[in-house]
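Supplementary notes for students who missed Thursday's class. We covered one full example, reproduced here. Read the sequence, then the structure, then the short commentary at the end.
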Amino acid sequence: MREVSRVHSTRRKLKKPFGKERIHQVKLHPQYIAGFIDAEGSFSVSIGKNETMRRKIEVRPEFEIELRADDRKILERLLVTIGCGRIYDCSYERYGWYPHVKYKITSIKDMEKYLFPFLDKNSLQAKKAETYILFREIVAIMGRKEHLTDRGFKRIVRLRDKIRKLGKKAKTFGFLPKK
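Structure (token representation):
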């Protein structure tokens, strides 16, 4: 029998956090998760204005998987296996869609401590592996606080643009000077 673990998670619509004590799921095989991430995972880096930040711009890396709500159990098992993240309920009623759930990791520390060691040990096999390498480099730059320098920030924008180009959406959105 596989080990049952408890990990922290929250649900957007609940007033109280959906804590570790509420998730009791059996872990998944690591290679299954790697394949699942190859198919359904998303590594993204958003850059936006934020007046409270020193340079008035915020860099937000995030990893997520979104599925229909009736597949929630697989995300809970994925969360337990990786060891971090949160699960959110998403409502798309206004579009006439089924409800969805989203597994998300936004903490740089959690990515470095849990997600990256997991994915380094259980390699992605599809084209998403290249995106992962670029994403990991961006998070490493941020972990070293290099994103607070002009040089580090420009490097992040270039790496983010490579990620977007892999997804055929390359734009700098005015964050880098035109050549």
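Commentary. Confidence is low (pLDDT under 50) at residues 1-21. Residues 7 and 80 are 6 Å apart (CA to CA). If anything here is unclear, bring it to office hours.
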